[in-house]
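I am still getting used to backbone structure tokens and would like to learn alongside you. Would you supply a protein for us yourself, any chain you care to pick? Start from the sequence, derive the backbone structure tokens from it, and show both lines together. Go ahead whenever you are ready, and we will take it from there.
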Amino acid sequence: MRIQKLNSDTKKNLLEDLLKRSPNNYGQYEASVKEILDKVKEEKDAAVFAYTAKFDGAELTADTIEVTDAEIEETESIHEKGKECPMNVYELLMSQLPQMYPFEDDSVEDCVRMELQDIGRMPMSCWVYGSNSFLLHGYYCYRHLILAKVERRKDKDGIDDMAEHEDIYLMGVPGIWQHREQYMASMFGFRKFKPVSHEKQRSGDFGYWCVELK
């Protein structure tokens, strides 16, 4: 993974790189994602190991992915905190995951980059997103998700009606603003779009389709 300090130049390069992967043709990606999901459902771990070798170049077996006692204890601790207060889990993830701030404005207080497997570290109520077709589509197009912390605001930055408490945690799926994309995103629970650019939103703008995490 490449880590860069954000400035005007690197932010521009990041946006240009992400836009190169713009999903203008749903059919092209849907077929690939469906093939992967169907194979995993049918072959289970064997399919996961095969795709890991294909995409990541890592050879895994049932013997080499054994979870350690320390990892089990850490997961149990996280889930216990999640039962008490999900916000504690999100705060913990914000402190552990790599920082990523793709937005040109300051409407987002903090933002980190997520991988698909990080959903398993979130409260159990969030695990359903691991099989969300829209999220998987965006992830396999752009190879990342975001977790963002936002203060409740009453202005026009596009997130003022999401919740009534002080801190709002959002999970964002990268994508572009289009009416068809909006329809698909809303159907799968991602009803808010946060553009990267602070300029007036236009069709084809890159940004993140967001869902508020409880």
Remarks:
- The helical segments are 8-19, 26-43, 45-56, 69-84, 86-96, 133-142, 179-187.
- Confidence is low (pLDDT under 50) at residues 160-165.
- Residues 26-43 form the longest helix (18 residues).
- The radius of gyration is 18 Å.
